[in-house]
User: Fold this.
Amino acid sequence: MSITFPYRYRVLIMLFFLTLLSYFDRVTIALVSVRIKHEFHLTNAKFGWVLAAFALAYALFEIPSGMLSDRIGQRSVFIRIVIWWSLFTALTGAATGILSLMFIRILFGMGESGTYPTSTGVISRWFPIKETGKSISALTMGASVGAAIAPILVIPIAAAYGWRMPFFVNGLLGLIWVLVCFSWFKDLPSNMKGISEEELKLIETGRRFQRAHARIDWRLILKSRSILALSLMFFCSQCGNYFFIGWMPVYLQEARHFTENEMKLITSAVFLSGIAGAIFSWFITDWLVKKYGLKNGRRLLGVTAMGMMAILFAVTAFTSEKRIVVISLISAHFFYLPVLISSFSSCVDMGGENAGTVTGIMNFAGQMGSFFLALYFGKIADITHSFELPMIILAVLLLSGALLWLALDPEHQL
Assistant:
């Protein structure tokens, strides 16, 4: 008797590689940042504007992309997203100065925006409620794998062929993913050829999603304390995340005086810890919900993990020991993954058939946090000639985000 691998897990593998590629692309510019700064004669403050250009464009198009995926379906939006981002990822390698680099990164951010809202919309349609945490864990694990392998691949390519070549390679990889999505994926399980009746029934009777093209009442969103708390919390969490994907290589080389090769290994180790965090979340997220209920389960994991991030960033700021810096950053990124998974799971909990829109709202706020971090981190480092103060501010923001989890109620459905 043959055993068929469930179609929903095949969809999850596709999403895994989507987020893998998205973070591989995002981390690339940070890994070659010192080379770019040297070629274009950029200060930390000016390089911060390059990072901020992407973050702002990404933020502004999050809500429209999430709403569009809820309205017309995820497949079409995925194809638009990845073709666009592949083009402007490749064009990053053709930049001639800070202005062209910023313009290309703005267009790149516009293109990649919507990846996570659209992905959570797929999870709302393809997975029963009891598998929400596990499916989000696998989704975010892809991002950690992409970020972890990027230093191992990007830095040797940049060393051999120049900092521009990795961006050309990234663009090609995205187009390969598009071909798979176009030829195979369907928005709804009922439209997928070959899916068993048993699996289809399991999905359709147990998922949050009930009907397509459901209209969302924006008055409920604007009045929702939980949506506000979720958005503010995610603003704080993405300040932490953008340190990892935007500023950490610079911090390690310029503040802690690691070599480029040492930075490569440390950065890879930091993102590998995210894989461990995602695996931990795979087992703990849905278990906490089952044991303590939806509200308390999500809150407990969010408060604890984000609080630990705040402590570890504070330790990083104040210590002079390189070994402690490395251990603290690796541990902090481990705890970031449960925060991320609880956040996106809460979007599915509250959003249902409008999970993409709710995720877009949350991620808009989060990417504004990335925009804020991109600007203030380098600017303060240049003014104070030290990275200590921006790290302290980051720790305070993460502590504030941890407390905001106490105001969030994922049982409040829109």
